[in-house]
Amino acid sequence: MSETTPTAVDVLLDAFGRIPDLLHDVVDGIDPGLLLRQPEIDGVRNNSIGWIVWHIGRMEDAQVADLAGSAEVHASGGWGERLGVPYPASTHGYGMSADDVSRFSVASADLLTAYYDAVHARTVEVVRGLDGSELSRIVDERWDPPVTALVRLVSVADDAAQHAGQAAYVKGLLGA
């Protein structure tokens, strides 16, 4: 029996493949009120589960589309209108205040996870199509050292996993 050494693409697919289950574990069957509730800790309102999951999808969608040179799933699939999120289509959640987050609403938890599932499917499609030379391509020269496609994808997977953990923590905090 011979074993093959996993490639960078294999590792990326494994990392991204873990995110949907994490999000579904948090969101599936959740009470709609808990989805939008911002827990307050020491007088500070924090991000709601729904907002965190939406942000994961928007962040991954935008980063992968930029890397692939294609349209975001959000735009091409009409997700902005379907989700009913109160922000402009270009919004990803970066730098939002607690007041901005408190305006978050979504048509349903099922649509929220369906959007992420569509983003995930696009991410898998893009990652599967990459080879070594594409993974080495510089995608952002604003950093020192410049960011390669591989480093960007690792960052996106890491960010998504961290935010999924935050959503699970908030769910536990709210007693769900």
From TrEMBL:
Matches recorded under Pfam families: DinB_2 (PF12867)
Record domain DinB-like: where: 17-167
SUPFAM superfamilies: DinB/YfiT-like putative metalloenzymes (SSF109854)
Stored InterPro entries: DinB-like, DinB/YfiT-like
NCBIfam families for the chain: MST_Rv0443
Protein's UniProt name: DinB-like domain-containing protein
Native source organism of the sequence: Nostocoides japonicum T1-X7
